[in-house]
Amino acid sequence: MSTQADPTMDELTDLVFLAAGRLRGGFNTAAAELGLPPAQALVLTNLSAPAPMRDLAEWLSCEPSNVTGIVDGLERRGLVIRRPAPADRRVKHVVLTEEGERRREELLARSRAQARALFEPIGPDKERLRDLLAAVLAGSPDPGKGHACDR
Question: Keyword set for this entry (predicted)?
């Protein structure tokens, strides 16, 4: 790895962070419009099937005790329920309710609309950008996720 200054790499890094920040801002706006804190919204978008609490903690890079509070909030809103896992009744799975599924779809639709607006100016180049970003992500290890519980 070179330690020499690379202005193009510095600019690329800044632009990717800015684009990611705008995507996150659009997601958070969509969540707020639906009355959801960002961490609860992230759980909804990641919960396409019943999942153990420990999986949610891993997705969010949170301590399990923090996830308990997030799931408690979703449960109070009627968006999820906890069910014992079929194989081990000590393990609790978080399951979307019908209202949770509806709210998840609405959240995804709104945040995708925000993303489309962000990338609309590049027109047909969006496929090239997709391919380039996919290549970047495929060629580098995942250093870990951000801490959604800190938001």
Answer: DNA-binding, Transcription, Transcription regulation
Six token digits for residue 103: 């709210």
Return the axis-axis angle of helices 98-119 and 7-33, rounded to nearest 10°.
140
Please give the structure tokens belonging to residue 87. 């194989």
Where do the domains of the chain lie, and which CATH numbers do they carry? Answer: 18-137+145-150 (1.10.10.10)
CB 119 within 8 A of CB 130: no
Q: Rounded to an integer, what distance in angstroms lies between the CA atom of residue 15 and that of residue 17?
A: 5
End-to-end CA gap in the chain: 33
Kindly report, residue by residue over 79-100, the tens digit of the pLDDT. 999 999 888 888 889 999 999 9
Which stretches of the chain are DSSP H helices?
A: 7-33, 38-46, 53-60, 64-76, 98-119, 125-138
Q: Indicate the DSSP class of residue 129.
A: H
pTM as predicted? 0.80
| Calpha distance 84→45 (Å, rounded) | 21
